[in-house]
Give the backbone structure.
Amino acid sequence: MTPSNNTNNRSSERRYTLTISCPDRAGIIAAVSGFIAQHGGFIVEASYHTDQESQRFFMRQEIRADSLPFDVSEFSSRFSGVAQTFGMTWQISDSARRKRLVLLVSKQDHCLDDLLYRWRSGELQADIPCVISNHEDLRSFVEWHGIPFHYVNIPSNNEPAKVAAFAEIARLYDTACGDVMVLARFMQILPLDLCGRYAGRIINIHHSFLPSFAGARPYHQAFQRGVKLIGATCHYASAELDAGPIIEQDTVRIDHGDSVVDMVRYGRDIEKTVLARGLRYHVEDRVLICGNKTIVFK
Amino acid sequence: MTPSNNTNNRSSERRYTLTISCPDRAGIIAAVSGFIAQHGGFIVEASYHTDQESQRFFMRQEIRADSLPFDVSEFSSRFSGVAQTFGMTWQISDSARRKRLVLLVSKQDHCLDDLLYRWRSGELQADIPCVISNHEDLRSFVEWHGIPFHYVNIPSNNEPAKVAAFAEIARLYDTACGDVMVLARFMQILPLDLCGRYAGRIINIHHSFLPSFAGARPYHQAFQRGVKLIGATCHYASAELDAGPIIEQDTVRIDHGDSVVDMVRYGRDIEKTVLARGLRYHVEDRVLICGNKTIVFK
Amino acid sequence: MTPSNNTNNRSSERRYTLTISCPDRAGIIAAVSGFIAQHGGFIVEASYHTDQESQRFFMRQEIRADSLPFDVSEFSSRFSGVAQTFGMTWQISDSARRKRLVLLVSKQDHCLDDLLYRWRSGELQADIPCVISNHEDLRSFVEWHGIPFHYVNIPSNNEPAKVAAFAEIARLYDTACGDVMVLARFMQILPLDLCGRYAGRIINIHHSFLPSFAGARPYHQAFQRGVKLIGATCHYASAELDAGPIIEQDTVRIDHGDSVVDMVRYGRDIEKTVLARGLRYHVEDRVLICGNKTIVFK
Amino acid sequence: MTPSNNTNNRSSERRYTLTISCPDRAGIIAAVSGFIAQHGGFIVEASYHTDQESQRFFMRQEIRADSLPFDVSEFSSRFSGVAQTFGMTWQISDSARRKRLVLLVSKQDHCLDDLLYRWRSGELQADIPCVISNHEDLRSFVEWHGIPFHYVNIPSNNEPAKVAAFAEIARLYDTACGDVMVLARFMQILPLDLCGRYAGRIINIHHSFLPSFAGARPYHQAFQRGVKLIGATCHYASAELDAGPIIEQDTVRIDHGDSVVDMVRYGRDIEKTVLARGLRYHVEDRVLICGNKTIVFK
């Protein structure tokens, strides 16, 4: 299936997105925007932030591709002088080169259904080279979309087999040239080496308002505590479980009449919305990581 | 100052409010509503809930006072038969007998300002016999309302003096015939014996979305964790700090640009709203405690 | 496709739902709950409301089917005496008899995708005998679910052909024994006679916060007015366009940076959520119509 | 009363705020940030927007005052060259020169109470030279704050006397050197000449989610229509009633159980919050008017 071409977001025309972080000082914006202006570049969106603790400056600029006389590779070599002067960590991406999302799922399919809908309607401007699962349940739905579905058995009690399974997942991800690994209610804890190897490229949806109710069965935990709102958190996976940099969160009101089953139902709606928003920010290079926090230039 | 008489909530006519909990079984509603109907009672609001874990039934009924041929004392003696049959824990209150709120504050006054406004505008249908504080700062504002202000020094490093201070607070509360002790950003940890003696009658506002960020400086904790929403929690004080039954919560969105100072500012608005809502539910006998949770019949 | 049997809402056990409206007076609750108790009926959820303007009383009660010694037909004949005494308009439904939803769609499929997902996951406890559309675009997706898809051409400039098309739609709906006609972004104005014939059984989702921006292109209207929130409204279709009784609404924040295209994207998420909630309330007999308003017993 | 000096928002250090609008083209950001950098200026916050319809560019920059070697007057004369090149409409403000807010109230005081609290706590960084009212009711509360209170009688049936009353209000505003006239539930329709003379400087709070329910008694209108959310709108007053550029809006959920009186109560909380937010944006020069819409750089 070829996703629809209707361009339903701000990024419908081709754009280069430049993201930068460096020590804060006067003159950074002038230097960067001066460089862009000097080549006729037309900035369509610009955002800035200074992190007070680290005194680091973060910026993101979207430039109309057709306003510049060169491509991202040429941009990169010319910009390196400015970058060096300010000690910048930076990257530039081209909207014409769509990011490749590898989705990992288990049996619950509300996030998968939501992401595949956004993909086939053209809202999620990215490619999905494959879906990986430790169950066969969702094969038919995924394949209806024309997307390859890989089954990888993850035995729960056999450590060496588990290690092999995750090695296979990593191999499939690498073979698919994945840019982002999306844990769309994958329900498995990723091994540390994967979290390290793909740091900042694994996005998880946790079904609680972190840091409350990390770990297993968060809706049961929420029910026991008697909270009046439940939530969901989209975050980068890191070595510590459910403790990585948070990209997006939201909450929804419940009351004493809601059982755990009701919470699970409300939760599905908020999980898929929060994951979709967080993933969109990542795909559009709107998320910059700063220590264990994120800057999200919406 | 006499608070205004404009009646701006549902309870403007005189009502009796009957709240009940008992083991769940068929026929409870019929028995209670039958008893009320038999005396011509006109029910204006009725709510029910069964707690699945404990298999206990909870109900609340508001009855128009003028529809019954007797007062709450007579109601009580006549109703005791029904109550005994079902093993009910129950109480009946008369809206003509306004609850008495004793407010405890420190230096921060946003919740105090909010509650006093709701009181003097007639929205909060309760009496405020006095305000107690460990600082003199808010005396003038409280006294402008014609409400007595009691200063009680609470030394931080002198345990016996602290014990005496809290004994004085309890004495002032008892002398004022308080029904509820409201910790309106009191910033002091209540001693265990007070929490026990006034269980279910001490309402606190905590400036986080519990169970996240219990204890001191929750906005600093939230800032460090990089959450994307902050919240506030209104709960009954209990022996364990910030762990009592939750009455009401809410959250508000923040982003990477918000410092701790910004969070404190956003937080004030949500703290005062959440406290006002929770307190209102309590004053209107809408909150029933079930273990460490609450049933709130809105 | 057989939708999953996992029971993920409150109504997982078989229940009878009794909904009543009648002139308000003392004793109604006692009479109804007395009747139920007399036959051993176990009430699991009960809600009441008095409309002050019309002085009508509305109630809804869910009863465990296995607690009563008879079925809904027997219930009906026995209850008719009580009903007559109070001049009740009433009905009783059996959760074992699932409602039949006929979905009408055009080309936009976000609401369709959402409803079919909720159906196949077992969350939406109803049957979908068919989907009707004036375009062929969504046939493949619908048929993948094993649901019949009927194409009905609706020519825009030919009035007699249009009349015939809607007659065909009505025929398909009747043949399918539809209980509810769901306009899931159908983008066609229903003829008056259909609105009249199926009053209270046609549910529409309008992509604005009514009464603002009724009629065509509401997001363009919202953009022109410069509002800071956009919304969606689920309502019963009536003779006047976008003016029927409102079941559910919600809003989402936008800002000056959002184009009409961005609003359409945000709007999709809120439209499908609001429609799903409103439809759920209807399917569970939680919505009672009172003049041009609704009472929704959540 | 001197409002507290605790600096509880982002603008605690002295800043210059530069706001600009001009025809869009490449190089604007470079020219402005180049000018600022050339004088050592340290930009602490920068925001941009292009209005697609008018093809106009809008920007706002906050600069640390101590980073520039001159004051706003010197800045103005030096910057005029850049401004002329790009055909800019622009202004620069100095946070050390606090804006002067003249509040107009009637009898309802929830917005007044809220604004005075924010002022005396130091959150609202502006001066309030006086409060004007057509009733004496709120004199004592205003004067307790040490703020002059002016009573101006506005007779309802005497047109010449009404004209004279508004002339007196304008005179008081001018004498107080007002920067903004805040209609904090003033309940009077301003004459056209005032709306024209102070265009972009009169801020109103309307108690509905505009454009729904403009004009009188919006909560009654909302009740009649049976909406499921009510709202409030902060906007600039213009010649057409309740139709000026919208600065901020919000909504709150209600249900069938809420009477008009309940809506009024919920409404108070949302009105004061929306007005406080909108006013804050204006005071911090975050609002730029573009036709009948606003750009709000939060």
About this structure: Chain D has eight helices and 13 strands. Chain D touches chain A through 20 residues (CB under 8 Å).
